[in-house]
Design goal:
Number of strands: 5
Helix content: 40-55%
Number of helices: 11
CATH superfamily of the largest domain: Glucose-6-phosphate isomerase like protein, domain 1
Distance between the termini: 90 Å
Radius of gyration: 23 Å
CATH class of the largest domain: Alpha Beta
Strand order of the largest sheet: 2-1-3-4-5
Strand content: 5-15%
CATH topology of the largest domain: Rossmann fold
Largest sheet: 5 strands, parallel
Number of domains: 2
Order of helices and strands: HHEHEHEHEEHHHHHH
């Protein structure tokens, strides 16, 4: 008996995916006034907050995994295509100025390379072996963490990368905006950010992009906090590379010590523009060399390093 063409399974048909479905709340999108458009977008964007809350446990596990890997000399890779990949590149690019990390510590890999940041090259996401090759090129190993980002959960480029990373023993994390039964994957940590259909059907640069950015903010910042690059809520490892960041560094020193701005500037200069070291020097009453030794002894964690230094001052 012959099978009609309409009943033949088409693996490229992704209409069942949550990210591809039509949103009934925006059925009249093209008839809305500008103010009504703003209100509807605002209402839908509330779903991103709920999605993050629903994924709190896997997000926390991911922070732990990333912290452990980076603390043992590993690297964090984000890999994706289109909007998902660009968001990974953006988050990676923000780590050096915010936390004074070397550029190779957190890296964003985008299908199509740097050119795809400004010019759409979504066709490059369809090659599984290209994702594998990206892992091989960077010599991903068992100390690393690879975060695959794909709103619809089906991108072959990302799947290839995660497959190769797992073969090398790397920790793998998957981020998608569809339920696991719609796009299953083998990964150590599976994060599903379910924001529902987009107002503009299939345009995952909207809610899916927003919630992905939120998740990446949490992962990178959370890991850096755990690694000691934050004291209280201050970025004490900030890279002092321009006037704005020097001003921020001086304000941090003034706020966390009894110094005025001129004295803070002198301390910052003596520390080699390193806020954490400057705080260790001043609060621990140490010269730069001894302060650095104390920080190194405590894996760069300022709070326990200060506690040890102050205990020696007041035994």
């Amino acid at each position: 008996m012959s099978t009609s063409s309409s009943s033949v399974f088409d693996p490229t048909d992704r209409g069942h995916l949550l990210t591809e479905q039509a949103n009934p709340r925006s059925a009249q999108l093209d008839q809305l006034s500008p103010l009504e458009l703003v209100d509807l977008f605002n209402q839908e964007d509330q779903r991103t907050v709920a999605a993050i809350a629903a994924a709190r446990e896997p997000l926390a596990l991911a922070i732990e995994a990333i912290t452990a890997a980076l603390g043992q000399g590993g690297r964090l890779y984000y890999i994706g295509a289109g909007t998902s990949g660009r968001l990974g590149v953006l988050d990676a690019a923000e780590c050096p100025p915010t936390f004074c990390t070397p550029p190779e510590l957190v890296q964003g890999i985008l299908a199509g390379g740097p050119a795809a940041l400004v010019k759409s090259s979504e066709g490059l996401e369809d090659v599984f072996t290209d994702g594998e090759a990206a892992m091989a090129e960077r010599q991903v190993n068992d100390r690393d963490v690879v975060v695959g980002i794909t709103a619809g959960g089906t991108t072959p480029y990302v799947k290839g990368a995660l497959h190769a990373a797992r073969q090398q023993g790397a920790k793998t994390i998957f981020i998608a905006c569809v339920p696991a039964d719609q796009a299953p994957i083998e990964a150590d940590i599976d994060i599903r950010l379910l924001v529902g259909p987009e107002l503009l059907a299939g345009s995952t640069r909207l809610k899916a992009g927003t919630v992905t950015k939120m998740a990446l903010n949490i992962l990178s910042t959370g890991a850096m906090v755990r690694l000691g690059k934050v004291y209280g809520n201050r970025m004490v490892d900030v890279a002092v590379t321009n006037t704005k960041l020097r001003d921020r560094a001086l304000r941090i020193l003034c706020d966390l010590t009894d110094l005025d701005r001129a004295a803070a500037a002198e301390l910052l200069d003596r520390s080699g523009q390193q806020v954490k070291l400057a705080l260790m020097m001043h609060l621990g009453q140490l010269d730069a060399d001894l302060a650095q030794q104390q920080l190194t002894r405590h894996q760069g964690q300022l709070r326990p390093a200060l506690a040890a230094a102050q205990a020696s001052l007041h035994p």
